[in-house]
């Protein structure tokens, strides 16, 4: 088994409207199962959008029994979550 690291960065336009709970989410998904690793980064401010990075890593466990330990193809899923009215 191998380790894999992924990240995604959102770079809003200067002055873009954001909300405290607007977020960038990343997850690693195996087949059609639910995500085995997730991360969510939030702007945590309403004024002045800044770059936002979310990162996840597939790190095999010692016993090999976790959902991310299986051999095969994995997908990186990147989602932008926003409140109504955000850019």
Task: Describe this entry's structure for a reader.
By secondary structure, the chain is mainly beta. It has no helices and 5 strands. The chain has strands at residues 4-10, 23-30, 35-42, 52-58, 74-81. A 3-stranded antiparallel β-sheet has the order 3-2-5, with no helix packed on it. It has a two-stranded antiparallel sheet with strand order 1-4. β2 and β3 form a beta hairpin. The chain is elongated, with a radius of gyration of 15 Å. The model has no long low-confidence stretch (mean pLDDT 85).
Task: Describe the structure in brief.
The chain is mainly β. It contains no helices and 5 strands.
Shape designation: elongated
Write the H/E string, N to C.
Answer: EEEEE
Strand order of the largest sheet: 3-2-5
Strand content: 35-45%
Total beta strands: 5
Class inferred from helices and paired strands: mainly beta
Nearest-angstrom radius of gyration? 15 Å
> What distance lies between the first and last C-alpha atoms, to the nearest angstrom?
40 Å
Give the proportion of residues in helices.
Answer: under 10%
Total of helices: 0
Mean pLDDT: 85
Described by strand count, sense and barrel closure, the largest sheet is: 3 strands, antiparallel
The stretches of 5 or more residues where confidence is low (pLDDT under 50) are none
């Amino acid at each position: 088994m191998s380790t894999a690291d992924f990240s995604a960065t959102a770079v809003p336009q200067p002055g873009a409207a954001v909300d405290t709970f607007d977020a960038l989410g990343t997850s690693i998904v195996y087949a059609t199962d639910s995500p085995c690793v997730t991360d969510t980064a939030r702007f945590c401010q309403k004024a002045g959008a800044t770059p936002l990075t979310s990162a996840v890593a597939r790190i095999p466990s010692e016993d090999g029994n976790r959902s991310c330990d299986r051999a095969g193809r994995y997908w990186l899923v990147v989602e932008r979550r926003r409140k109504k009215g955000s850019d």
